[in-house]
Write a structure and sequence with these properties.
This protein is of the alpha/beta class. It is built from 17 helices and 13 strands.
Length: 412
């Protein structure tokens, strides 16, 4: 293992059996959606063998902020993965992939639909040699339908999936969160689908696997809550509503007297009354105009105006302390710097430290949290081809001479 992946992060849970130990995953996807699914599986014990192009590797290795020539993000996204290099565009490279997949439980790919088939690596190629294979496919629009052949990046699919339309302020262009939410959601859905297929394989008398087809736009579409039935049943088109939540009052962002922003979500009847007591306006709690959420929605502007005036009279820390003491759901809007300082993040173990090239680096833990079989970070994202020798020698049983020949010909 290279120095980039040395110094594994040890925790008190390292001796615990992890739920996916013994599961072998071959990850041939690049960038974010497929690799994030692999990250989740690897965190909970799966052996994830990540296949990258020789020399260049996964593009994310060079994205955003670099340290010692490698992306800081990479250390998180490629944690616990065994990184090998194979040229998928070569016949010999594809032969190696077939042999590798024949040893595996799961294959993850997120190429444009038809690419794996063009290479002779589609699901049908493994149907008989490895009938138990779970073949996970992530793409912008899915493997079927008229849009399937189109390139589908998260930015486009977030719009197509309905998310961007409701995200922003009325009359303005939709706002993009400064994150690749569509890719991450697709990765989570892929991990969920893989685990569902894994459970089903255990129940199937023949131990058969299946295809897991994840579309980025569908992962985003899955977030739309009541948008679809409200349109179908009442003709309502959910519009963007800025920092509020349509049909839920009060739930908004308010600027305090020191300029800091806080979120208050006092949208149950009892919590709304507690908020009014904190604001020293308890008489509003007895006013029938505000007695339930539907009535409060009719008077949203007035209610938000009163809350904004109260919040604006106090520093954020004072306002939040009063709300916390009264049992009102409220909190600050954190930057990553704030996250690093908050004791709740520390108590939950969400910031884990690894060592990369002799230097410490904090990366986020992966949730959910399991009490008996927790996941953990064993090593950060390794250097390109770090596990070539291990995988080619121990998994594919290639001799040193064969590996040397493959290296010289640029296959690995």
């Amino acid at each position: 293992m290279s120095s980039q992946s040395a110094n594994s992060m040890m925790t008190e849970n390292d001796s615990a059996q992890r739920p996916l130990q013994g599961l072998r995953v071959i990850e041939v996807g690049q960038l974010l959606a497929g690799p994030f699914a692999g990250t989740i599986l690897g965190y909970f014990g799966a052996e994830v063998i990540k296949v990258e192009p020789p020399e260049t590797g996964d593009p994310i290795r060079g994205w955003r902020k670099l340290r010692n020539g490698q992306s800081l993000w990479w250390s998180s996204l490629a944690r616990n993965k065994k990184c090998i290099t194979i040229d998928l565009k070569s016949d010999r490279g594809r032969e190696l992939i077939r042999k590798l997949v024949d040893t595996a439980d799961v294959l993850i790919e997120n190429f444009k639909p038809g690419t794996m088939e063009k290479w002779g690596l589609g699901p049908e190629e493994f149907k008989y040699a490895n009938p138990g294979l779970i073949y996970a496919r992530i793409s912008g629009y899915g493997q079927t339908g008229p849009s399937a052949p189109k390139p589908g990046f998260a930015s486009v699919c977030e719009g197509f999936g309905g998310f961007r339309y409701v995200n922003g302020f009325p009359g303005q262009a939709p706002v993009r969160p400064n994150l690749s939410i569509g890719d991450t959601l697709a990765g989570i859905h892929a991990a969920l689908g893989i685990l569902l297929a894994y459970i089903n394989r255990g129940h199937d008398e023949n131990g058969r696997g299946q295809i897991v087809d994840v579309a980025i736009f569908e992962a985003v579409f899955n977030l739309l809550e009541g948008v679809v039935p409200e349109y179908a049943g009442a003709g309502i088109i959910r519009e963007p509503s800025g920092s509020t939540l349509t049909g839920i009052v009060p739930s908004n962002t308010y600027r305090c007297g020191d300029g800091k922003l806080i979120v208050i979500g006092a949208n149950t009847d009892s919590m709304f009354k507690r908020l009014l007591k904190v604001m020293e306006q308890p008489e509003m709690g007895d006013d029938p105009r505000y007695s339930d959420n539907n009535k409060r929605v009719e008077h949203q502007e007035e209610i938000d105006g009163r809350i904004a005036a109260w919040a604006g009279s106090l520093p954020a820390a004072t306002a939040l302390a009063q709300l916390d003491n009264a049992g009102v759901a409220a909190g600050p809007i954190y930057s990553v710097e704030d996250i690093f300082k908050d004791p709740q993040y520390e108590a939950r173990g969400l910031l884990q430290q690894v060592t990369v090239d002799g230097e410490p680096l904090t990366i986020p833990a992966i949730v959910p949290r399991l009490s008996a079989t927790p996941g953990s970070t064993d090593w950060p994202g390794p250097g390109i081809g770090s596990h070539n020798d291990e995988v080619f020698s121990e998994v594919l049983r290639l001799s040193k001479d064969e590996q040397s020949e493959l290296r010289e010909s640029g296959i690995i």
